[in-house]
Amino acid sequence: MTQQRITIIPGDGIGPSIVESAVQILTKLDCGFEFEYADAGLAALEKTGELLPAATLESIKKNKVVLKGPLTTPVGEGFTSINVTLRKQFSLYANLRPVISFKGTQSRYEDIDIITIRENTQGMYSGLGQTLSDDGETAQATSQITQQGVKAIVTFAFELARKEGRKKVTMVHKANILKSTSGLFLKVAKEIAAQYPDIESNDMIVDNTCMQLVMNPAQFDVIVTTNLFGDIISDLCAGLVGGLGMAPGANIGQDCAIFEAVHGSAPDIAGKNLANPTSVLLASVQMLEHLSMKNKADKLRFAIRDAIAAGDRTTRDLGGESGTSEFTQAILERL
Fold first, then answer.
1. Checking CA distances to 15, which of 146, 191, 208, 228 falls within 20 to 30 Å?
2. What is the number of structural domains in the chain?
3. CA nearest 105: which of 250, 284, 264, 315?
4. Domain end position, chosen among 218, 240, 262
């Protein structure tokens, strides 16, 4: 059997330590993976003078599956977001952000189980028409939504809901004000929803969605929305289950997928054995599911859940006093 090659991008700050935790655990699971390491972010900039070297792009193109730590894009003109660049380069149109409650985390709610599906390449993140007037007084950017893009992301959401036995899809918009872009999103989304009579659907204005998520998150199952709204909502949802350290992310295209920790690189704690690797471990669960390794994905999810619930070797953000390596060892033992 041909081994599955995985491109590993350790990333910046705490990235290398949490990604190494994931590699150890995936090796223990005996997934048959071959890991190919590649650089991006500040680490790549120091080595090659580029944030996203050609060799890294070639590795992704060849292997088609990536596990990635957090990357730092330098602040200032001339530096484009690496994550946005990757999504555009490989047409990763669907951003998949699940959040689920884990016993033992310091969160306000129990029994949260929500998936936010965000269109990943259009809207305000498309980078179109960004200008600043010569006098620095006026800035402008263009938001572009296409019917094809809306069809793709909303169909993805309903197909995923059907596959996973989900009951409801909420389509989030601002069509009452953004009548052209959000209006098109809502119109097409309703047309797609009508093709899935087995799945309940509703639409909700984005500001009300944020309020309802805080007041009564149990009413949500799958949320599908445009790029900017999805960026905000997915982080809000992470806050319902203990923060970004508990939230993984997947960027899915037709023939390529990137799985990642969604939090920042936290350079202030880099190299101190303090980081919580759960986000990238849950991203590894997503990767295993993507590769039709559901049994191994379930084993890993259970081991993470059990280690956090036990609480004897959890990291500080989870209320414990242990480090990355001790928490990793707790999961390895459970596997």
1. 228
2. 2
3. 315
4. 240
